[in-house]
Amino acid sequence: MSKPLYTKMAVDFGTSNTVVAFWDDDRDDVVLHHVPDVTLPFRFRQDGEDLEIPYIPSLIYYRNANIRFVGYQVIGKSLERKQGAFRWMKAYIQSRRRIKYPLPDGTRVDYFQAGRDFLESVLLFASEYVDINSAEIAFTVPVESFEHYAEWLSDACVKMKVRRYRFIDESSACIFGYETHLQAGDVFLIFDFGGGTLDVSVVRIEEQVRGGKGCRVLGKAGCDIGGRIIDGWIYKDLLHRAGIHDIDARQAGALFMLKVEEIKEQLSSEMVFRYDIKHTSSSLRMTGLYHRAELEDLLEKNGLYHNVQSTIERAVRAAEEKGTAKNDIKEALLVGGSSQIPSIRRQVRIFFGDKTRAYRPYDAAARGACRYLTSGIEALYDHIQHDYAIRDYDPKTGRHRFSPLVPRGTHYPTEPDFKRLTMKAVRNGQRFLGIDIYEVAEEGSYAGGTGELVFDLNGGLVFDNQPHAVEAGTEFWMNEHNPTFIEADPPARRGEPRFAVTFRVDAQKRLLVTVFDIITQKHKYKDHPVVKLK
C-alpha cells in the first residue's frame, strides 16, 4: 500500500445517507472523495456556484453471508426492496430493535450487525486514502441516545479493528462544520432536517467542556417526518396524476423513488421540473411538469409546515425554561437535505431572520467531526480527552498489559511531578531502557501515582508493584517511530535503582519526561517532549 494521504477522517452515519470526510494537512481543510459505484452526488447551487457533495446511501444488501453491496451499488442493481436489503439501520439501532431477518441463503442478520457491516464496507473504501489501523477516526453520535448508541458504535469499532476512534455529538459537529467563530457562551439552534426525522436543538458552547461533547443541549424537539416521508408524498402524487395504482408500480418502486428524489432536489433550485420516468422491463411511465408551487401545496396539505413550526417552538421553549431566550440564539444552522427546500428555509427565516445560515446542509456534521480532530477545536477543552498508558510486562502471566499514565479528564498543565517512577535493570550490563506510550481507546481502572519500573531480558517494561491494568479494548503506540531511549552510562546492574523518572503535561498538551540518573547524580533528560496528547 502506498503512503496514505490522510491521518484523520470522520464518518457521519446517517439514517438515509452517510458522508465521509478527510483532513488534508496541506490544505488545512476538509476534503471529500467520490467512490465510483458507491457514492452519489448531492448537487446544489451556492452563491452562484454549482457544488457537489459525495454521499453514500445508508443501504446494505446481502446476497449471502459473505457477499454484500452497499450504497449506490444497492440502488443501481435495484436491490433496495429485495430480501437481504437493510435500510434505516441507524434508526433501528437507536430503538434497540434486535429482530433478526433471513438472508437469501437462510442466514439471519439483525440491524446491529447490518449497521456494523455497512460501516466496515465504508472504512474499506476509505482505506484507499487512510491507514485505518493508525488513523484517527471521528464518528458522529445522536445527542438523545449518546450512551446507548456510543456503546454499540464502540463495540463495532473494536470488531472492525479501528484503534483510534472518537465520538462527537451531532449538534457539536454541525456547529464546528459551519466554521463559525466560537466563543464560550454562544448559543446556536441546529435545524437538522434529514432523511429520517426533523430534529431541532438549542445548544450552548461551554466555558469548560466536560465529557468530550463540546456543547450543552439546552432544548431539543423532534418530529418523525423526514425526506423519505416527503418522497413518499411526491411518489403517491405522481401515481395519482398518471392513474397508476401503487400495486402496479411496486416492481419499479426503487427506480421511481430515486427519480422522485431528483424531482425534490431540482425543485429546490428551479421553479419547474420536467420529469420522464419509465421502467424498461415494464410499460410503466410517468411524464409531465412539476411546479414548485405544486410541491409546496402538497407539503401544506400533509401538514409539514405546521410540524416544522411546532418543532422549532418546542425546542426554543425548552431552552427558555432553562433561562436562554430566543434572542440569545446567535445563529440558526440548517443541516440535512430536506432543509434545502426553499419554503422550509423561508419558514426558518421567519423565526430567526438574518441569523439563519444554510450553506453547509449536506456535509456540516462530517466536516465538523473531522475538524474536531484538529488542534483548532482542542482549544475548547480544558482537560485531556483520552487515556494514556505505558505498556508493561506481567511476569506472573507472561503477557503484556497497560498501566495508566495520564487518565482522561486530567486537567493541564499538570503539576511538575504529575507521575513519579523508578527504573531498574533486570540484567547486569544493561545500557538502554525505553518507555513506550500508548493511547488507550477504552476507559479502564487506574492505579496510584508511584511505582518502580524494571525491564525484562527483551527490554520489555515491568512494574514491580503490580498496579491494576487498564482493560484496553484498542490501543495505539504513540511513540513507535520516535521512542524515548534512556542510556545507562556506566551500564546498569541488575536490581539496582538506576533512574528516577517524572512526567508532566504542559500547556500545549505535550507529555514531558524528566530522567535523573541516580548513580551519576546527573539528568539525562529535562522536560523532554515525548508525545502530544489530546
The dominant shape is: elongated
Estimate the mean pLDDT confidence: 80
Radius of gyration: 27 Å
State the separation between the terminal residues, measured CA to CA: 28 Å
How many beta-strand runs? 31
| CATH architecture level-2 label of the largest domain | 2-Layer Sandwich
Uncertain segments: 209-213, 442-473
* CATH domain topology of the largest domain: Nucleotidyltransferase, domain 5
Number of helices: 12
CATH class of the largest domain: Alpha Beta
Strand content: 25-35%
Task: Summarize the amount of helix as a percent range.
Answer: 10-25%
Number of domains: 3
* CATH fourth-tier homologous superfamily of the largest domain: ATPase, nucleotide binding domain
**Major sheet characteristics:** 7 strands, mixed
Q: What do you see in this structure?
A:
- By secondary structure, the chain is an alpha+beta fold.
- It folds into three domains: 8-172 and 362-372, ATPase, nucleotide binding domain (Nucleotidyltransferase, domain 5), CATH 3.30.420.40; 180-359, ATPase, nucleotide binding domain (Nucleotidyltransferase, domain 5, 2-Layer Sandwich), CATH 3.30.420.40; 387-532, Substrate Binding Domain Of DNAk, Chain A, domain 1 (Sandwich), CATH 2.60.34.
- Helices cover 24% and strands 34% of the residues.
- Strands 1, 2, 3, 4, 5, 11 and 12 form a seven-stranded mixed β-sheet that branches. Strands 26-25-22-29-30-31 form a six-stranded mixed β-sheet, with no helix packed on it. A five-stranded mixed β-sheet has the order 15-14-13-18-19, sandwiched between helices.
- α5 crosses α11 (364-372) and α6 crosses α7 (253-266).
- The longest helix has 17 residues, at 304-320.
- It is elongated.
- 39% of the residues are buried.
